[in-house]
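ARCHIVE CARD
Drawer: 12
Card no.: 0347
Subject: one protein chain, sequence and derived structure
Cross-reference: see card 0346
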Amino acid sequence: MDDKIFRALNQFTGKYRSVDIFMIMVSKKLRYVFAFLLVIMWLQDKFHKRITSLAGISAIITLLITSLIKLIYFKPRPFSRNRVNLLAPVPSNKDSTFPSKHTTIAFSVAISVLLYKRILGYILSVLAFLSGISRIWMGQHYPSDIIGSALIGSIVAISVKFTSGIWDPFITRVIHTYNRFISLR
């Protein structure tokens, strides 16, 4: 089933240049959109700084979990087993297809924001979904990799929210230090 869904989507890669360019741009540049939006949120009030901090914590934890999974579990990329339509940049054959780092981080940030700011969170969730689709379109991940990665990122974001009491002293300290630094200028 995974292979069938992959092929159904990947068969169009290389046939529609404008879609290919869009998918490459989403895959390579979307992280900058997320970072820009987080910076804009950080520059607002304390509430938005807290959301940004929780999103950052979620992203860091997600990155650590993703790295750990890749150390202990290897799943070959679609292009290493079969002939697929592939768009550059092509990751290494030695890098596991599961989980997708792009997708896990995008979902961890999107869901972190969604838990506090619905409209912006929905927009980021759609962008995170597009990020995952772009990875399939480009021939780098299977649909199950994207679904699993979205779940990992989402679960981490929800877990960070429910354990926010643990993170609050750290977040308060970071915000306080930032405010002191800005007031010294």
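Annotation on reverse: The mean pLDDT is 92. The CA atoms of residues 53 and 174 lie 9 Å apart.
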